[in-house]
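Figure 3 (text version): structure tokens given as input.
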């Protein structure tokens, strides 16, 4: 494998992560519907599943951003540029709504969802303080603000921090975050331009990576590689999140 083919794999991984996000959004919405129609007292199973799917949604959403950043770094390397060229400090993106808006070419209001994504990811990964922690007999809600201790680099101590949790239906919150952030991240996604030789090298590498596969098909190696190249060329058209965004918008309207 060479760097250019790796960059192509990274490009498609962005859309795999969007598919993953879509899967868990559907799971969360279906669970919320089942919870709403379940008899009182509600079974804790619904709360547990909502926490798990919320965490999975946040992690998938974070992954789309990580993939987009990696694609830019790889494009820089392939273009002979410094690895961080065209990227903005993560701290600046988190702390400065104006820098965020300028970088993503969006409204500053979108910054709220970026901070929510980051806060929720850290809390879910570390202590569960942003896990969906309640609801009423109709819907899941964030019952409290996010309250936790975070390492302060300046004081070199853990400092108490609190941030406002989103109000309203929790599934709507997940949908709003996805609808706001996925297109912004997609706009930063970079895809390499692959030649026919690049595709050939990629196909051959994949075949030879499977132990013993070509031992039984050595006489058909060229035929298999040609078929793989045609499949790769068929995927040359740039992907899009348009289908998922439309589906999420309809779900949001129906809740």
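Below: residues designed for each position.
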């Amino acid at each position: 494998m060479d760097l250019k083919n790796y960059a192509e794999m990274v490009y498609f991984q962005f859309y795999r992560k969007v598919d993953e996000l879509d899967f868990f959004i559907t799971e969360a919405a279906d669970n919320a519907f089942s919870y709403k129609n379940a008899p009182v007292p509600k079974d804790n199973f619904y709360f547990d599943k909502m926490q798990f799917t919320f965490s999975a949604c946040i992690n998938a959403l974070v992954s789309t951003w990580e993939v987009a950043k990696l694609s830019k770094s790889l494009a820089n390397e392939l273009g002979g540029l410094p690895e961080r060229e065209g990227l903005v400090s993560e701290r600046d993106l988190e702390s400065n709504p104006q820098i965020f808006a300028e970088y993503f070419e969006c409204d500053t209001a979108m910054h709220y969802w970026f901070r929510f994504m980051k806060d929720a990811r850290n809390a879910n990964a570390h202590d569960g303080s942003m896990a969906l922690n309640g609801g009423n007999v109709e819907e899941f809600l964030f019952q409290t603000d996010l309250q936790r201790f975070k390492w302060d680099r300046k004081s070199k101590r853990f400092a108490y921090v609190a941030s406002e949790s989103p109000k309203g239906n929790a599934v709507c919150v997940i949908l709003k975050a996805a609808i706001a952030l996925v297109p912004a991240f997609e706009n930063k996604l970079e895809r390499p331009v692959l030649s026919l030789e690049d595709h050939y090298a990629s196909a051959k590498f994949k075949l030879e990576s499977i132990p013993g596969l070509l031992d039984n098909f050595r006489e058909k190696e060229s035929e298999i590689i040609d078929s793989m190249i045609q499949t790769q060329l068929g995927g040359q058209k740039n992907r899009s999140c348009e289908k998922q965004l439309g589906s999420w918008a309809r779900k949001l309207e129906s809740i």
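The chain has a mean pLDDT of 88.
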